# Entry
Amino acid sequence: MTEEYEFVAAIAIGNRGEFAPMLMESMHEFRREMFVQRLGWSLPLLEGDERDQYDREDTVYFVAVDSAESVTACARLLPTTSAYMLPDLFPQLLGGVAAPRHSSIWELSRFAANVRTTREGRVLSLSRPTLELLSSVLEFAREQGIEHLVLVTSIAIERLMLRSSFDVHRVAPPASVGGALCVALLISTRAASE
# Structure
């Protein structure tokens, strides 16, 4: 008998003032679990939760929850017209070019989906929860007039995005970040039919 897993019952979108405090707390706990505990990243913790200087009033969050209201995925968007991670923390991924700064370009960061319970194993494409969250992010971006998202990621995720037919382009050649080969990508928000 095949078990069915519910990945996403709802995706909440908004800034910290629009979310219930418990949902924000759960999202930060989820980020700590995904990025610090599972991936071993050295990230700032505030009262035990993963938070940084980019968790601001103008940050837009995406928080996916299942029917038990447990966080299963999250992401955040930051305008590139103010401080954001790529130029501040990963300038080596710019290859000497100026960082994108425009109201129609936002940074996608802290993107994570919990796929451990799906038993999907190693796959050659993005998981269903990841695709659902990305679809929600892109739809929101289009509605807001955002034309591109900039994303710092590994070249392995870049390959998966290309296989999934996302319109992505490198900002510059890959470079090492903490011993991993990473790249800054521009993701077009245009729908495939456009």
User: Anything to note?
Assistant: Residues 10-188 form a domain with the Aminopeptidase fold (CATH 3.40.630.30). The chain is about 25% helix and 30% strand.
